[in-house]
Amino acid sequence: MVIGLALAVVATIGVGASTSTAVFGPFNTDWDGTSELRTTVAADSDTTFELVRQPSAYDEYSTETVALVAAPERPYDEASSDALGQFVDRGGTLVVLESGTAHGDSLLEDIGATARIDGQLVRDEYQHADGPMMPIATAATDHTLTGEAEQITLNHASVVDIDGDGQHEGDVRVLFETSSFARLESDSASGPDSQPVATVESVGDGRVVAVSDPSLVSNAMVDRTDTNAFIQALSADADRVVFDVSHGESLPPVASALITVRTSPLLQVALGIAVILTVGLSTSQGVRRTGQALRTRVLEALASARFDGQSERHRLERSSTRMQRPRSQDTAERASGTTQNDTSGGHQ
């Protein structure tokens, strides 16, 4: 019972050290996490999936990389924005998913994009899923980034303002938009109209996708058929997908440690040496224990073999008995080996 309790405690600690409660966190398995997105993309053998903890990592990514930024909790400073801007200028694709905070919107401005996240929530009394605050947006154009998705379901989303003051005015293309009956919730004076919720534009040699609802990548929404098709289309031509966690909550200790090891060749070598030494030490101790046990058995055999005043016949009988055991064991081992071979042959 004590052992069971101890194992339960260890298991609980292990789960706590490897999971997270951060909203849109890649190790958050609750409805508002993105663990399903992480595991789905990572399972694609044709695409490499990574988590970005330092914006400087963008310097090493190729033009076939898609970067996802979902509702950052802190603003990007100048150095971080420059790293992302240069990544896009070289030909990378940046997907910014934002609705409520201004951090994602500021990032769009910093990298020279035209699109802006309005910040006001949109409602649609006519075309929605589980209420007006979950509008259903339809594909506004036939584009590779919409894939096979004909519509996507939003969850307390904002809208994308395509009349911004970026460096590429007029280059914004709407991917998904609400019905013409949608309106901004906080602006009662505005009439119903279709509202853009996902756009794409060229910036430098790359592309910037603005999505006004980060919940699209959450566990609660990403498994919806068309939403999943849209997410897959975003990374269809990529050889690498990275999820930016540099401006969110800290990762769980276990996940953070694993990522540190994977991204540090020096640590990998040190860990490998430590494993070899540990295995070698365990093997050495096992050899010593085996040697001691063998020595004890030999001494016992010699003691029992001593002449104790009995007749030569009895001594030979005892010797014969002792000699028969190895033969008996050897025969059993050969029989066992034959049985295993027969069994393995049967499976083949």
Automatic annotation (TrEMBL):
Compositional bias per record (Polar residues), positions renumbered to this chain: 336-348
Domain DUF4350: 26-234
Region (Disordered) residue spans: 309-348
Pfam families recorded: DUF4350
Highest taxon above the source species: Archaea
Biased composition (Basic and acidic residues): 309-320
Protein name: DUF4350 domain-containing protein
Species lineage: Archaea, Methanobacteriati, Methanobacteriota, Stenosarchaea group, Halobacteria
